[in-house]
Fold:
Amino acid sequence: MSGPSVDPDAVELSVLFDSLRGTDPATRIDAYQRFVASHPNGRFAEVLREEALALRNRFPARATRSETAAEPPKPTLTAAMQPIARVIAREPLRLAVIVRGDVSGVVLHIRNASSPTYLSQPMTRVGPEYWAATVAGENVQSPAFEYFVEAIGLQGTVAILGTAEDPRPADVEDVLPKPPPKVLGQAQIWTDYASFNAKAANDYIFQTEGLMGVRFGDVGIRAVRTGFGVYRGEGGTVYALDTLHQAPTSVGLTYGYLETELGMTKYVSLGLRGVVGLDNTGVNGGGFLFLRIGSDLGTNLWFGAEGLGGIGVRGVTQFEWNSFSRWPIVLRTEVTDEPAGDNVGVRASAQVGYRVLPHLVVSLRGSYQGRTIEHSGPGAGAAVGYAW
Structure:
């Protein structure tokens, strides 16, 4: 009589269970998966699959040994650079970095310590693990600069030395002499005639002025100018001249002046002129104050106020349009009681220049002014300016 039949799968499974007593979930999951792989059609395969899945869901942070072995190690990038000990301002700077790992490119980012943005430039492979780049001298400015390096690898672009938020610093020593400031010489002479009453020619201004000056820089003492002038005119009240037909009052001032312009920023400056001269009664003088918006070497707008003893006062708004390098244009308006300090009049003028040579400009001016509609007249003038 034969004995009861033996199930080999059951025996093998019993042995497996005995061997797994006291082991961790990862070991059990791994053993169940190997048993199922070797007995895919066994009657215990489905149960073991469900048990392995239940253990994996219960312990998700624990990978099986087979899964861990199947995952390839993530590639790593390492980098090193020789410390920057001393950098000379305005000198080209050669930087080299060692990059270990599979990379297709390396990028250097550099900025002045006070700049909010970086300048980026690719580094060139100069050896199996070496990459280098030369920073232009104009980008190496005192007192310091900051930099970081990125590599392009299998993981994308990765910062390997510093980051944009936490760059590496380097001190810059300014040992080279600074280039001397560029000084611009200026010279000009102009003459102007303005009639406030063309009908009777008894209310007019005639003025000629010449100047020499030196322009230094944009900020601080921007320019110093000195010059001379001759002012002649006749005038009076509209009532005295047009109704009573009285003789006009003659005025005149032969003067010299000293003017300085102070640049608060590149595009804002303040000018002050002091005037001293001789008129019909002796020594007299005055002053002129103006505020300029924009660079005096380009298009700008300025507002000024002038007072001359024995003559009168005037307020000025002037727009200097230098968008056309060969044809500089000046538009100007004035409110004044000159030449005799009586009724207020207004004046509008336009001046068009022509650049004969790079530093020589010849200009013609036309104007119209008046105190009333009937008490008014035209004007004209000319100017020659040279800069070097």
